[in-house]
Amino acid sequence: MLLNRKLQNSILHIAASCYPTSANHELNEIYEPLEEKELAANLKYLEQNRLIEKGSVQISLDGFYSFGGVTITNIGMDFLADDGGLSAILGVVTIKFETDTLKAILENRINQSDLPQEQKRAMNLALDELPAEGIKHLTTKLLDEGLENLPSALILISTYLGLS
C-alpha cells in the first residue's frame, strides 16, 4: 500500500514546525529515499483530508509529479494537538431534551408496559406532578440502569461507532 502513516505523521510535524509558512527544504530529508508515487499518494491523501493545503503535489496529464511546499491547515494543527485543538472545543454538540419530551417518552413506556391500568394511571399522574429537576434525575437514573443491565450495550455502542 502506498499510504504510510509514519510518513504522513512526519510531514505533518515538520509542516507544523514551520507554521504559518510552508515547509520546503525542511522536508528534503524524508522525501529523498521515497519513490515519487508514494510521496505523491501520501501528500494527496493529506490534502484530501484537509490536513495540508492544496498545492503540495501536482500530477500532470502524462503522469509526472511536481512537488511544492507543504502548509499545514488549522485542521492539521488540531489533529496533532493532544487535546484536539479548537476543533474539539468548537465541534461540541449539545443535546437537550425538553421536560415535556422526556415526560412523553416516559409516559409512552409506562402505557406500553404490562402493568395494570390502575398502576399505569398512578405512575402517569405522579410523573405529571414531578418537577423538571426530578424528570432530569429520573432520566439519568434510567439511563444508568439501562446501560448496566443491557449486556450487549458495549457491543451496540461499538457497532454504532463502526468499531466492530
Note down, in words, how this protein is organized:
This protein is mainly alpha-helical and 164 residues long. Helices cover 59% and strands 4% of the residues. The protein has a two-stranded antiparallel ribbon with strand order 1-2. A hairpin with a 5-residue loop joins strand 1 and strand 2. The protein starts with a helix and ends with a helix. 10% of the residues are buried.
Widest beta sheet: strand line-up? 1-2
Based on secondary structure, the structural category is: mainly alpha
Proportion of residues in helical segments: 55-70%
For the secondary structure, the number of strands is 2
Give the DSSP E fraction (strand runs of 2 or more residues). Answer: under 5%
Total count of helical runs of at least 4 residues: 9
Instruction: Determine Rg (CA atoms, Å).
Output: 27 Å
Q: From N to C, what is the helix and strand string?
A: HHHEEHHHHHH
Q: What is the typical, i.e. mean, pLDDT?
A: 90
Profile the largest sheet.
2 strands, antiparallel
| Basic shape | elongated
End-to-end separation in angstroms reads 23 Å
Q: Spans with pLDDT under 50 lasting ≥5 residues?
A: none
